[in-house]
C-alpha cells in the first residue's frame, strides 16, 4: 500500500513537472520585451513586468490596473510599495539567485490608499526583467472560507433533515400555544433557516409562513441596520446564541417587513436541543416601534426644553451683566463736525443692518458707538452681545463664541449656548477684533458667509442671523498687510467703516461731555447738585486728554465725589506743559502710563512717524526700536498718523 501511494505521488509530481516544463521553456525563449508583455496581458493574476535596473514598470495587465493606481504604475515600482525598499531588494536578490521566488514580505498600497497584503510571485525573464504576479491573500482566504462553508453545508444535509423533522414535531405539538402568543415567535436551524413562524410574527413582518419556512431568516428580515448599513450574518446576535450556546437579549434592533419598511424590535434568542444535540434557536420578539418613537420624541422635547432653559438662563445672566456694566445709554454727545459725521454714519449703519468696523484710540467712545448703532437698528429688541477678544486664549474664545456641548472637552460639564446664538437676530460686538486668533477668524468668516455654525462637540449645524460690529484701536488694514488679520474677514466686516476721533481733535465737545458725565454721576450716586463753572470748562479744555472720553468721565466722577460746597476741583497733572520733572507730585501707575504714552506720541510727532534709525523715535527715547514697537501695540498708537 505504501508503495502504491509513493507511485501515485510520483506520478502526480511528474505531471506537475511536465506542466512546468512548457512554462520554463516559454520563459527561456523570451528574448524581448514584447513576448513578455503578451504573457503579462494573458496572465489571470494581477501581473507587472519590472525593469529592476531602472525601477520602471514595463508592462501591466488589467488586473494589476484594477489593484494599483494607474499613475503609480506608470511612475516607478518603488512607488507601489508600502514598506521599506530594502525588503524589495532582498526579494529581487532571491529571484535572481533561484530564477523564481515566492514571498509575502512585500506590502503594497492599493488604489484607494489601502494597504494590500499580497503573496508575490517573481520570475526572472531575462537579465534586468522580472515578471511579478500577485495573489490577494484576503480574497484567497475568503474563497477558502466559502468552500469550507459549502462543504459543511453539504455534509450536514442529513443532520439538517433530522433537525427540520424535530422542529416540525415541535410545531405540531405546540401549535395552539404558538398561535395564541401575542409576541412574534419563530425557530431557526443551525443554518439560520426558518423552521416555524407563528401568526403574530407573520402579522408583524408581513410575510406568510410559506414565504419564510426554509429561507435564511437573517438575509430576509435582519439584513441591514436602520441606517441602511449592511448587517453581516456573522455579527448577528441570534446566530451567536446557538453558536456560542447562550441566551441573547437585545433591546434595540430592527427587523425588515416584506414591504421594505423597518420595525423596531426587542427580542430574546434561546438555543434549543434535540436529544442533547444543538438544533438551532427560538426567537421571541415584539414590535416596539411606537414605544421607541414616543421615547425619541420625549427625549427631543426634554432636550429642547433643557436647551431653551440653559439659553434663557445664560441670556438673562448676560443681560443683567450688561445692564450693570453699561456706561451710557443716552447716545453720542457733542456738537463737533466729527460727532455730526459720526451720527450720520451710525444712522446709515443701523438702517443697512450691515456689518461694520469701528476704529479709534482707546477711550474714544467705540463701545458707545456700537450701542448707538444697535439701539437705532431693527435689531434693538434683541440683545447686544459683547466679547472682548484680547483677554482670552484661542480655545477659550472659540468656546465662548460658538458654545459647546457637555463633554466636548475637559471641563465642559454642561451645555453652553455660546455668544453667537445669544446674538441671534441681534448684534454681536467684538471688542479689539485685531486680537482675534487666526483659527477663530476663519470660523467667524464661515459663519458670515454661510449663516450657520457648529457648536463644539455637536454634529448639527445651527442657523444664525446677526449683525457683527468689530472695534479696534489699531489700523486693521495694516494688520491685513502684515498677515495677522484675514483679508476676506476684513472685507466682510468693513461694509461700514466708522472712525471715532480722539477728544483732543474735538475740544468743542468737552463742555457737553463734562456736563453729561456730571449729571449722570450725581443721579447715580445721589450726590448734591453741582454745576460746572467757566473756570472749570477752561481747565478741562486746556488738558490734552490722552485717555480720551474715558479719562474725562473718570476725572468728572472723581471731582463730583470730592466736591466741597458745590465747587469742582479737577485732579489731573499730566498736560503738554507739565511733567514729573516739573512737578513734585506723586503719580499713580495709571498716570505714569498716560504720561509714557504722551511722551511716546511726542517723540513720534517730532520724528514724523519714524520709529527706527538716527532720526527715529527710538533714538530720541534712548530705547531699542523693538521696545518702541511693543509699546505702540500696548498703547494702541499708530505711527502712520504722525507722518
How would you summarize the topology of this molecule?
Elements: H1 2-29, H2 33-42, E1 47-51, E2 56-60, H3 62-67, H4 70-75, H5 85-98, E3 100-103, E4 107-109, E5 115-126, E6 129-136, H6 137-155, H7 157-173, H8 175-180, E7 184-189, E8 194-197, H9 199-205, H10 209-212, H11 217-221, H12 237-243, E9 248-256, E10 262-274, E11 277-287, H13 289-325, H14 337-352, E12 356-359, H15 366-376, E13 384-388, H16 394-402, H17 419-422, E14 427-431, H18 438-450, E15 452-453, E16 462-463, E17 467-472, H19 476-481, H20 487-493, E18 496-499, H21 510-525, H22 534-542, H23 548-562, H24 589-606, H25 617-621, H26 625-635
Parallel strand pairs: 12-17, 12-18, 13-14, 14-17
Antiparallel strand pairs: 1-2, 1-6, 3-5, 4-5, 5-6, 7-8, 7-11, 9-10, 10-11, 15-16
Account of the protein in words:
This protein is α+β, with helices and mostly antiparallel strands. It folds into five domains: about 1-25; about 30-140, Beta-Lactamase, CATH 3.30.450.20; about 155-285, Beta-Lactamase (2-Layer Sandwich), CATH 3.30.450; about 325-500, Rossmann fold (3-Layer(aba) Sandwich); about 575-643, no CATH class. The chain is about 50% helix and about 15% strand. It is built from 26 helices and 18 strands. Helix 14 (about 335-350) crosses helix 15 (about 365-375) and helix 21 crosses helix 23 (about 550-560). The chain is elongated, with a radius of gyration of 42 Å.
Which tags fit this structure?
643 residues; alpha+beta; Beta-Lactamase; 5-stranded antiparallel β-sheet; 26 helices; 18 strands
Amino acid at each position: 500500500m505504501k508503495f502504491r501511494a509513493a507511485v501515485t505521488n510520483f506520478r502526480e509530481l511528474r505531471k506537475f513537472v511536465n506542466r512546468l516544463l512548457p512554462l520554463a521553456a516559454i520563459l527561456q525563449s523570451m528574448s524581448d520585451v514584447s513576448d513578455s508583455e503578451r504573457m503579462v496581458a494573458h496572465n489571470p493574476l494581477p501581473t507587472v513586468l519590472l525593469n529592476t535596473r531602472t525601477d520602471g514598470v514595463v508592462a501591466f495587465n488589467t488586473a494589476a490596473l484594477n489593484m494599483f493606481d494607474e499613475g503609480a504604475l506608470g511612475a516607478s515600482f518603488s512607488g507601489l510599495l508600502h514598506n521599506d525598499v530594502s525588503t524589495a531588494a532582498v526579494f529581487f536578490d532571491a529571484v535572481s539567485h533561484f530564477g523564481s521566488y515566492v514571498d509575502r514580505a512585500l506590502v503594497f498600497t492599493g488604489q484607494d490608499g489601502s494597504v494590500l497584503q499580497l503573496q508575490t510571485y517573481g520570475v526572472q525573464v531575462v537579465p534586468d526583467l522580472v515578471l511579478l504576479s500577485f495573489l490577494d491573500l484576503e480574497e484567497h482566504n475568503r474563497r477558502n472560507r466559502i468552500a469550507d462553508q459549502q462543504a459543511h453545508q453539504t455534509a450536514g444535509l442529513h443532520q439538517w433533515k433530522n433537525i427540520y423533522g424535530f422542529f416540525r414535531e415541535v410545531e405540531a405539538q405546540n401549535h395552539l400555544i404558538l398561535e395564541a402568543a401575542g409576541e412574534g415567535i419563530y425557530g431557526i436551524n443551525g443554518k439560520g433557516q426558518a423552521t416555524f413562524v407563528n401568526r403574530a410574527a407573520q402579522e408583524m413582518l408581513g410575510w406568510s409562513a410559506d414565504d419564510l419556512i426554509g429561507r435564511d431568516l437573517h438575509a430576509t428580515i435582519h439584513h441591514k441596520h436602520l441606517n441602511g448599513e449592511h448587517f453581516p450574518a456573522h455579527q448577528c446576535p441570534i446566530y451567536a446564541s446557538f453558536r456560542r450556546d447562550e441566551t441573547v437579549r437585545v433591546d434595540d434592533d430592527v427587523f425588515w417587513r416584506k414591504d421594505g419598511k423597518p420595525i423596531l424590535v426587542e427580542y430574546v434568542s434561546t438555543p434549543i436541543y434535540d436529544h442533547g444535540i444543538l438544533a438551532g434557536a427560538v426567537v421571541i420578539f415584539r414590535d416596539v416601534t411606537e414605544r421607541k418613537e414616543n421615547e425619541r420624541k420625549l427625549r427631543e422635547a426634554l432636550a429642547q426644553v433643557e436647551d431653551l432653559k440653559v439659553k434663557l438662563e445664560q441670556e438673562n445672566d448676560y443681560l443683567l451683566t450688561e445692564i450693570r456694566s453699561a456706561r451710557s445709554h443716552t447716545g453720542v454727545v457733542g456738537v463737533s463736525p466729527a460727532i455730526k459725521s459720526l451720527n450720520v454714519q451710525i444712522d446709515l449703519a443701523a438702517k443697512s443692518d450691515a456689518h461694520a468696523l469701528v476704529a479709534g484710540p482707546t477711550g474714544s467712545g467705540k463701545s458707545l458707538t456700537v450701542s448707538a448703532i444697535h439701539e437705532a437698528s431693527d435689531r434693538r429688541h434683541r440683545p447686544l452681545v459683547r466679547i472682548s477678544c484680547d483677554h482670552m486664549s484661542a480655545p477659550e474664545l472659540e468656546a465662548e463664541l460658538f458654545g459647546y456641548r457637555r463633554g466636548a472637552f475637559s471641563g465642559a460639564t454642561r451645555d453652553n449656548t455660546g455668544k453667537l446664538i445669544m446674538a441671534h437676530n441681534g448684534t454681536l460686538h467684538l471688542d479689539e477684533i485685531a486680537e482675534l486668533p487666526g483659527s477663530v477668524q476663519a470660523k467667524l468668516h464661515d459663519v458670515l458667509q454661510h449663516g450657520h455654525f457648529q457648536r463644539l462637540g455637536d454634529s448639527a449645524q445651527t442657523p444664525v442671523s446677526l449683525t457683527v460690529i468689530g472695534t479696534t484701536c489699531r489700523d486693521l488694514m495694516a494688520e491685513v498687510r502684515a498677515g495677522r488679520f484675514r483679508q476676506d474677514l476684513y472685507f466682510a466686516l468693513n461694509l461700514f467703516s466708522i472712525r471715532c476721533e480722539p477728544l483732543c481733535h474735538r475740544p468743542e465737545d468737552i463742555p457737553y461731555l463734562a456736563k453729561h458725565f456730571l449729571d449722570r454721576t450725581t443721579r447715580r450716586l445721589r450726590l448734591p447738585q453741582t454745576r460746572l463753572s467757566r473756570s472749570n470748562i477752561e481747565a478741562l479744555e486746556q488738558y490734552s486728554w490722552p485717555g480720551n472720553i474715558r479719562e474725562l468721565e473718570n476725572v468728572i466722577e472723581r471731582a463730583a465725589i470730592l466736591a466741597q460746597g458745590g465747587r469742582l476741583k479737577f485732579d489731573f497733572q499730566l498736560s503738554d506743559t507739565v511733567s514729573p520733572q516739573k512737578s513734585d507730585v506723586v503719580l499713580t501707575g495709571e498716570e505714569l502710563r498716560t504720561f509714557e504714552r504722551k511722551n511716546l506720541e511726542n517723540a513720534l510727532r517730532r520724528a514724523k512717524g519714524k520709529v527706527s534709525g538716527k532720526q527715529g523715535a527710538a533714538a530720541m527715547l534712548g530705547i531699542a526700536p523693538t521696545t518702541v514697537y511693543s509699546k505702540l501695540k500696548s498703547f494702541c498708537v499708530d505711527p502712520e498718523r504722525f507722518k
